[in-house]
Amino acid sequence: MDSCISVLSNIKTCIETIISEMESFDAIQKLNFEQFPVYSNAMAALQISIKKLHEVFILEIPTKHNLKFAFIDILQIEINNFKEVLAECKIWSDNATNNQCFYLYRCSFMALNPPSIMEKKIEDVFEKIKPLLKELDELEKNIFGSAIEIKHPILQKAWMLVGANQLNETFLPADTIIQGLFFLLKKEENGTLKKEDYCKKMIEEFIKLIDSSAGTPPDNKITLLELNQIEITEENKLSVKKLLGIQKQPDEIIITEISTEFKEPIKVLFNHPVEIPNCEGYGANWPSKKACEFIVSAENINNLDFFGIDFEINAGDQGWGGTGHDQVRFQVNDIMPQVAFSIWRDKVPDGNYKFNIGPDKVKLGDTVKLWLCSAPWGGWDARMNSCKAFLKFA
């Protein structure tokens, strides 16, 4: 594994040098080396692939692919050869375009070293690299599987931790992604989590929201499309903690109740107007009412970090016929409302629901609104009887 990482590191550094030098070769481009843009684009794509492989090998994810890795040593040799030819081109470029050189010297130099010779040198060495690029592409597909389609780097790595028999699936059980993120978080924290159960719960709540983000009712199956709903930021792509919206792992958890300004039980009929702001996914823009609205605030928290909001809500539907379609959605400030949960009379007979808005989505000082949404079919309605909220600090 260490030798793989070392080789990938060397190739990565070499490609960075090549790209830097190619970007500075204005003179070569002016001399109309027809294939030069092709080489440049290929190196840029190669840089991305090597960087991705380097990152996942550092995490010790694709150990089962070591035997397929031998050609990378050959790629390292050819990339170094390519860099050396580019160094020759740089010398050639300097001599060919330096107006301060003696005129007859430049004429002589160009006669002995015409552009066609330099172009042929680059072409020959690149021809040896081309078949290796195809092998690299295949290795990347074998290692990443379906995860190659996942945009967020942390979620991509969590998917790749599954067994080889699941790697190419288009969806995975929610528990599998939760386990992957938990493993990555633990590795991130050097193998020690002070509150393992709480950390796992945070990840479960995070995945629970992803499960309902792509327009279908939650089904405990996480699809590629659902994972690609997560926005990539400069912050959250760095670590699992940042993805969850926290700066440190929790130590002692402090919970304090906050008023949600929920006044009295409310009911939304199937023919009620649509009051919720424009939203997306299954149940979007259905008959709806605002259930409550409050500002996230707390006193005497003594510089503790905010870890999100837990809700306890009692809700139900019309009590007969179909179920599982009415929803409660949450909205933070003016961001598009998201599904908190669907109301399932048969699965939750007592009507007591719990959900969490994590610190990746809400901060102190934000305004939170809850919306009750009914299915728009004759006879349907949605009801909310109570709503409590608890702020968490650590």
Which key features would you list for this structure?
single chain; 394 residues; alpha+beta; Jelly Rolls; 3 domains; 5-stranded antiparallel beta sheet; 4-stranded antiparallel beta sheet; 11 helices
Detailed description of the structure:
- By secondary structure, the protein is of the alpha+beta class.
- The protein has 3 domains: 2-146; 153-244; 254-393, Jelly Rolls.
- 42% of the residues lie in helices and 18% in strands.
- It has helices at residues 2-23, 26-30, 36-58, 71-97, 103-112, 115-144, 153-160, 174-188, 196-210, 224-227, 240-244, and strands at residues 171-173, 221-223, 254-258, 266-269, 288-295, 306-317, 327-332, 338-342, 352-357, 367-373, 381-393.
- Strands 3, 4, 6, 9 and 11 form a 5-stranded antiparallel β-sheet that branches.
- Strand 7 (327-332) and strand 8 form a beta hairpin.
- Helix 1 (2-23) packs parallel to helix 4 and helix 8 crosses helix 9.
- The longest helix is centred in the N-terminal third of the chain and has 30 residues, at 115-144.
- The model has no long low-confidence stretch (mean pLDDT 85).
